[in-house]
Structure formats: C-alpha cells, structure tokens
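quick one: arginine bound model?
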Amino acid sequence: MVGIKELIDQLKPIFSNAMNSMDLPESIWLPLLGKATVEDHGDVALPCHSLAGILKKAPQEIAKQISELVASDLQSFAIVSSMSGFVNITAKPEWLSNRISILLADPRLGISVDQKKTFVVDYSAPNVAKEMHVGHLRSTVIGDTIVRMLEFKGHTVIRENHVGDWGTPFGMLIEHLLDLGEDRAANELGVGDLDSFYKQARSKFVSDEEFANRSRSRVVLLQGGDAETLRLWRILVDESMRYFNEVYSMLGVMLTDDDIRGESCYQELLPEVLDRLRESGDLEESDGADVVFPGGWVNRDGEPLPMIIRKADGGYNYSTSDLACIIDRVERLGCDGFLYVVGTPQKQHFEMVFQVAKKAGFMSHNHQAVHVNFGSVLDTDGKVLKSREGEVIKLHDLLEESIRRAEQSIDDKNPDLLGKEREEVARAVGIGAVKYADLSTERTKDYVFDWEKMLSFEGNTAPYLQYAYARISSIFRKWGGDRESLATSFESLMESELSNLRSEEILLSRRLVEFPSILDDSVSTFSPHKLCKHLHSIASSFASFYENCGILKEDDEAISQRRLALCEVTSRELKLGLEMMGINVPERM
Ligand code: ARG
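yep, here:
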C-alpha cells in the first residue's frame, strides 16, 4: 500500500501511546485520524473538537498536547503541528521519496488487485431505429470507464449493451421499412438517419388508419415469431447497430457486437418472471393486468404504485425485461454485482426493480445492484442539448465537429505537426475532450456541453492533461537515457539528495503518492470525476515544478535524476489515468 493510508498506519501506534496516556480509547480517536482536508495544512489531520467535551479542555489545548506527545516518535518520517484545534501531520521529504521509489518500481503504480468478483456493467443501451442521444453518450463514456477501472482492479467484467430492440413501436417501424423498400430503408438507417426514419413512421401511425392497423398486426406477428417479420426486424436492428458501432469506434470504447444483449434476448424468460412472481406470492391482479406492489411508492392520488408485469393485452413491460435480466445475470452469468449506467430519470424504475427482485428471491442480499445514475447534458443556456434545428443531435456529427475543432487548435499550437500524425493527434484531442468533459463532471450532476471549455488547453480538460504528458515525453526525448533505469538510479540517491526537495517537488510528490488511493476511491464509488480531478491536480503541480525546477539543465546529476524520476511517475500516472477512460495520449502535440 502506498500513500496516505500507509502514513496513517505508521502513525497509529505512535498515536496509540499518546492517547493511552490521555485515557482516550481507540474507538474515539482512531476514526478522527484521516486525510487532511486542506492540502496546505498537511497530509493527515486529527480534529480535536469532538474531544473537548470528554477531556473538558479547549480543542486548541488538546491538539497542542497531542502534538507534543507524538512529536519525537514520528520525527523520523513526519512533522507535527497544531492549529485551531487540529493536529496536522506532514510527511517528510524522505518519506515521500521512499514512496516515489516504490511507485517507480511498480508497473501497477501502487494500485492493488482486489479480491476477484464478477460484475455486469449495463451501459450505452441506445434504442434501435432511434438516434442515440447525448444521454446514451454519457452512459457509453461513463460505463466504459467503469469497465476499464474494474478490470484493472482484477475483476471479471461482462459488458452488456441492453439495446432497446423490442416492443410495440417495431410494428410501425417494420411497416415503414416495407413502404420505403428494404434497400432504401437500410440505407437511411445505416447512414444514421435514425431519427427521421422513426419520425416518419410515427407520423404515418398517427395520421393513417390503414398504416396503424397494419402496424398493430405486425406487432402480433413479431411477437408470434413469424419468420418473415423477424427477418425484417433484423434489418432494423443490424442497420442501426452499424451506425451505433461507428459511433463506438469513433469514441474508442470497448463495446462490440458480442456485448449486445438487447431487450429481445429476454423474451423467453418473461413468462418465467410471471410464474416466479406468482410462486413467491407477489403477483396480484389489477384491472386485468398482472402487477406487483413493491411498497413504498404511491401515485399522485396517494394510492400504492404497482409495477406492471403483464398488461391486460398480454404484452410485457420494460420492468419485466429488467427482472428477467436479473435472473439471467444471476443464474447464467453468476455475477456478484450489476451496475446500470443509466440516467437519473430512471431512478424509480431501478429502485422498484431491485426491490421486487430481492423480495422474490431473484437475487440475494449478497448481490450488489447499483443504478449508476447520471445527470443531463445541457447546452450553454442551461437547456437540454439539441441541435440548432431543435432536433436530437447526431452523435456522429458531434464527434466529427470536435475533431475538426481540435485540428484548428493544434494548427495554432504546433504548426509543425503534419499529415497522419496531425490527424491522429486531432482525433485523440477531439474525442478525448468530449469524453473527459463528461467524465470530469460529478456523475449525478448535469453538465454543460461547452466546446470552448472542453477543448481548452487550460483547466481540468483532456487537452491540458494530454499536453502535460506530451511535454514530459519531449523532456525524455531530449534526455535520451533509459527510462527503465530511473528506478534503480533513484534508489541509489543519498539521503541528503532525497531530503532537500524544493517546495514544487514536494507538492508534486504528495499528489503522485496519492494516486493509488484516489483511483481506488474512484472505482469503489463508480465516480470517474474523482480520478479526473486528481489527474488535473497532478498536471498542474507538474506545470509549476517544470517552471521552477531545472531538469535537464540542472548541473547536479543526482538532482537531475531525482527530477527525471518525478517526470517518469507523473507521465505514467497521467497515461494510466487517461487509459482508464479510453483516452489516447499522443507523444507529441
Ligand atoms: N434503452 C434504454 C433507454 O434508452 C436504456 C436501457 C438501460 N438498461 C436497462 N437494463 N434498463 O432509456
């Protein structure tokens, strides 16, 4: 273990002695000892305010007393002080350097492997024959990052793309396909004109009685498994997937055709859901429909809110297929956890589904079911993002635009980049910017889609981090030495060379040392923004380190080596952090 946790472990016995002498039991003081909330004050802090009542003394006095008691025992690795009722502990440069050398030597950069679990991550999930909207973009980007982080932590992760490929709208969509002719329809869908296709079908459905009737009979044929109808349905699915896959490949996410498990996959399990709910005694009848009352939810009139399992016309619901999905994930996939990366508007849906599934025994309390919810994407006026014409934005166009804008700013910044390299950098920056803007916002909050901000080379953005990475790569190109050897040369530095660090080196080291625990926290809370925030803090402390501390220009060889080692760890952490988000890091920009 590297970082603050280890520092706390080292402090524990020393504090234990001091606290014993003050008759304070561990159950009281230990939970107070934690990471300092103000970076300037130290690495670890112990707030003494809650001890005032027990010790009948002012917090300031208590903090001072504790500091005096521990000072000599921890002086080999830390410095203690007290301020405003806090005991503040700051690791000494030698301690930091020691951690840096551990990070340097570890290909996993201090990140531990967890006890292996199997997770299903349900993400992206666009709807067939409908444009993927920015909400699907968010799900895709956040879900993919969570998949990568869980895998890096050693878990087995099964990606499931729960595409909306079933239900009554398919009647009208198939009839519209027939009206257009298969080839023309396939072409429209394949190039991503999904929205206009859907709208045309919908408008005929509401205005043309004959079309509506045909559509209804088509639904019956589809549900009955009619071969010709299924063939037509497949065209809709395949052509839409062709477009979705194009978006996935532009985004550089891991989803492939093997990950598709749309709603249609669960059709056969739906009657089983009904049977099992009947057996568990949860099923009730209400106006001809089969329903379950999860309890705890009421409608506008204050009456218990049912979850409809089978409608009066015999059709099943979205909730029913999510229940089937849980049975499938528990029994077929044997997974321990299921994550649903879906927007906040579906919060109640998932709460109800989880509750019903638990009560009916589809999953046990050992299963971790989490709705990894997220907020909306807004435009700069604070409204839900739409195109200028008020239509849903085509994701493909949006990503193209980002790459184009990135090209312009690269041309301004580095006109020497040409040809294929320029193209690749623009792609990495443009796509990286869109993904990172999404990931760096706290997941549950709405985020504003702002081209200027996301493509800026300043601030908490992908281009800023990519640029920092490229800058370090250029230092190493100039240096020309063997980067692998840095770990050994760092270890052979003298104590004095590791202790007289400049303040910029200290701040950078402190942040580098914290990387593993931030990543852990980011994974366990499914919150990529925590990792983003930390990467940004690393890159910004690197910037002031770079400005103030000579690296290759430094005459003292030992100090130069020490600084190169910091560059190396910075570069590797930035790279790994961005890799977790599927964002490429160009060597030159
Ligand atoms: N297709 C749905 C939508 O666009 C999202 C599906 C999410 N996954 C799930 N298992 N319900 O809203």
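Residues 122, 125, 127, 162, 164, 322, 325, 340, 342 surround arginine (CB under 6 Å).
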